[in-house]
Amino acid sequence: MLVWIKPLPAPIDVSQPRSLPQHFDAKFAAFVAALRPQRGFQTRSFGLNKMIGIVRTLSSFSGLSKPIEKSFLSLSCSMCRSISSFIEDPRLNDFLDYMEKLKNYERVGVPKDAGTDSVDGFDLGRMRRLLQRLGNPQSHFKAIHIAGTKGKGSTAAFLSNILREEGFHVGCYTSPHLFSIRERICLGRNGNPVSAEELRNLFCDVRGILDLSIETEAGSLSHFEVFTALAFTLFSQQNVDVAIIEKLRLRSRDVISFLANGAIVNIAHIVLLRLGLEVVIGGPFEPQIEHIIREKAFSLNAPVVSAFDAGSQSSVRCFERDGEVPFQLCKIFIENQDDISMFLHLPEVKLQMLGEHQLWNAISATCTALCLRNQGWRLSDKSIQTGLEKTWLPGRGQYLTKREVEKLGLCGVSILVDGAHTEASAKGLTDIMKIEDPDGIWAFVVSMASDKDHIAFARQLLSEAIEKVVVAFIEVGFLVLWPGLGRRPEAVILTESTIAGGKSRTASAKALKEVWLVASKLLEIDAADMGSLHQWKNDEFPIVSSRGDVSNRQVLMVACQNNDVQDSIQLAGMLLHARAVEKHRFIVVTGSLHIVSSVLAAVKH
């Protein structure tokens, strides 16, 4: 296997707008490289006027006071793309090749028959037979089952660390991963990913059973089913005290449903209920949704604990930094006297996971820990607080360090990466954005899966741009109205990233741009369609005057199709500089954990 690793570009000082890596087609890349001779490349003569035209177009779109032809000649261009995912340990090559041959619904999307017992659906009988051949490992350990549409991974991490602080041997199974498939299975008192050697040995031990099962099921076993069965087998072999299992949302069912015999508590944002077991409701929910959950729990004789009832008075007190590491200082106060009595008061908790939504996830995990304590589990207040404070997950409200930003070829900007991909998680992201400099300017770099609600996601992020009207009642009886502070992004760069190694589920940058333009129109936000980065290499593309037909009040929308995510980030940095040199500049990379993975991989390598 030949792997090309992209050399690191020299950092770009965005106070001196002079560099924007371009990864167009091979011809254009060679053209750019020829403008700046590099060792190993032959210098050829191309039409400089063509390049200057492209630069003038970019300059006028950006609202620059003058073109940047001269500075553009210092363009840093790489002939090789950066790898978008972590290179797995070579000891796993056989295992990964084996798994690659299975159906991967994470890559291709959930089939329309997902809720049926069919070859293309999620036939629970198929999974039951596989587990039986493996000795029913799921019945050999206690489990906490986390279900829902958002916050599952963070809640699992909070709860895992609480239990580890008390000395329990914890297994944790979540998805997706950022760099290595091993991240999906974490083991032991340190919570490290399963080692390559352990995973390889397990695969070698059960490969015969897997071969038989796949043959018996006519090749219908999926990647997720096989890997889940392996995780259960490993938890059984390791004799974990408890396994925390995140449910993959596959419409009405999935293979995690086989944890019925081992479950202690079900945490829920959308709950999977079990007869007689405590149900911890996260959320917060719409009242009608919570009513349905409580009715179902009552029918199953399942006590309900709501993390957000009147007895839970928790809040984010302030946002601080320890060097370059941000954290939020929170108060957690829980007093519940309904179905289950519990009490906890933690006046100062330093959460590294940012945003009010992460406080909600922490409270859900804390309520679950208190349920376990009521069942006789040894869990001290100190272990709960320390577990919460130690929890940190990459790609969730993560600000890159100054050095990491420089590795992406920028300086003088802040970069926030977050795997938000739903309307609710977009709301959580905007809350994190509000924590930082309120006078700063922002640009979004967005890539999403094709099966997400793009319009709701875009509207939520853009809704912060609306200049809200503040109404105040003065004692003398006058109503005073003045514009509030909006969060209008200066630019939105729509790009593409691979999902599970492929692009069949990736929404095209062009389609995403159209959605964001529609969302802008619905919210009455003035947006300018800047076309695509690919268009700027054509002579026919119109050159706008450097004085600019684009107003500084317009949100610039650009599609970056088939480009490295690093190009999109650098373009965002350049456009931000063009709009406001003197203000603090922020770039938000979001839309999925897959684009976040690409960014963090570029930083890592």
UniProtKB/TrEMBL annotation:
Transmembrane segments: none annotated. Keywords: ATP-binding, Ligase, Magnesium, Metal-binding, Nucleotide-binding. GO terms for molecular function: ATP binding; dihydrofolate synthase activity; metal ion binding; tetrahydrofolylpolyglutamate synthase activity. InterPro entries: Folylpolyglutamate_synth (IPR001645), Folylpolyglutamate_synth_CS (IPR018109), Mur-like_cat_sf (IPR036565), Mur_ligase_C_dom_sf (IPR036615). GO terms for cellular component: cytoplasm. It comes from the Eukaryota. The keyword Ligase applies. It is an enzyme of class 6 (ligase). Its EC number is 6.3.2.17. PANTHER family: DIHYDROFOLATE SYNTHETASE-RELATED, FOLYLPOLYGLUTAMATE SYNTHASE-RELATED. Belongs to the folylpolyglutamate synthase family. This is Folylpolyglutamate synthase.
